[in-house]
Amino acid sequence: MSFDGMDPVMVALRLVTLILGLALLALGIRVAVSRRIPRAWIRMARLTAPQQAQPVGMGIGQALAGAGLLVQQAPFLFSVPYPVGVALLAVSLLLFLIALGLSARRPRPGTKRPTLAA
């Protein structure tokens, strides 16, 4: 699992995926830490007011997706044994599932959060 003997097109695709993963990770961390969604995202995605009120969850989900892409590409950047590459793929899938779960778990507008009755 390395770049040696690979097709140049595949190498380019892997590098693009790596750059995309770094960008997602950096932007997700920026949104989560600053607690502000960039105006361009609001315009492009046409986010509603309740969606704009959840920047930390959106940032964390995006950062986890970026981390998943980076972990997925790690075996192709560094020479690792096959079992380690499979384990990294499993970690990558787990990160994507957590990001998906966080986005699905966000409260929807008009719903009340359950409380514990005393």
Number of domains: 1
Backbone CA Rg:
18 Å
Low-pLDDT sequence parts: none
Largest sheet report: none
**Could you say which structural class the secondary elements and strand pairing correspond to?**
mainly alpha
Beta-strand percentage?
A: under 5%
Output the number of helix runs.
5
Output mean pLDDT: 78
Give the fraction of residues assigned to helices. Answer: over 70%
Q: Please give the number of β-strands.
A: 0
**What would you call the shape?**
elongated
Question: What is the N-to-C succession of helices and strands?
Answer: HHHHH
First-residue to last-residue Cα separation: 56 Å
Summarize the structure.
The protein has helices at residues 8-34, 39-45, 49-52, 55-77, 82-105. It has 118 residues and is mainly α.
Can you characterise this structure?
Helices cover 72% and strands 0% of the residues. It is mostly helical and 118 residues long. The protein has one domain. α1 (8-34) runs antiparallel to α4 and α4 (55-77) packs antiparallel against α5. The longest helix is centred in the N-terminal third of the chain and has 27 residues, at 8-34. The model has no long low-confidence stretch (mean pLDDT 78).
Please write out the topology:
Elements lengths: L7 H27 L4 H7 L3 H4 L2 H23 L4 H24 L13
Helix pairs in contact: 1-4, 4-5
Features:
single chain, 118 residues, mainly alpha, 0% strand
